[in-house]
Fold this protein.
Amino acid sequence: MSGSLVVVGTGPGKPELMTPATSAALARATDLVGYGPYLDRVPVLRVDQCRHASDNRVELDRARHALELAASGRQVAVVSGGDPGVFAMAAAVFEAVEAGDPVWRSLDIRVEPGVTAMLAAAAEVGAPLGGDFCAISLSDNLKTWATIERRLVAAAEADFVIALYNPASKARPHQIGQAFELLRTKKKQETPVLFIRAAGTAEARVISTTLGSADPSVVDMRTLVIIGASTTRQVGRWIYTPRGERSAS
């Protein structure tokens, strides 16, 4: 087949944080497929390029549409924010391939890495992800809240630094508060907590607090939450987690 599909991430916001490989893939594409606000980040690169915008909750439909376009001979770029493989469209594309038309398995499909939100957020404050860490999405659109709670407990008991994606929305503003209540039973109250809003953009804003004092009302969907490990510490205005197993002093 002459068509192809590449899944790209535009990074966290600043144009300079989009990788050159992603910029080149976008310039080659005849069709851009993605969530509307993410497509809006991509400048018009060629006059014959078609844009296919859709809502945020139709990932599999979007993936199937992109695969159909590629199977018809188009050069398709599926656009995510951040990194396309982290809570984003790359997994949806391969899920659609697995369940869909067998011919899609013969397509030229690639994934270009991008700068994901937790890396941009960590860079705003220092190196809080310097030791072992994990990422958990608080969205229960595709999994149950019981599953999320089980993973939060496991991460806390293993003393990982925890990066929380999708911490709050209009439909579920309460879940970040529930997450903090749960984590307070497993981690010390003085554990560092960072709220980084709009990381990797000119509007980036950081609130540094502790688990015991963290106010969930300041969180929205543009906020990345980082909860430290027992070794995470502050040096001046910077927060970092040592790579080694030395206890906090």
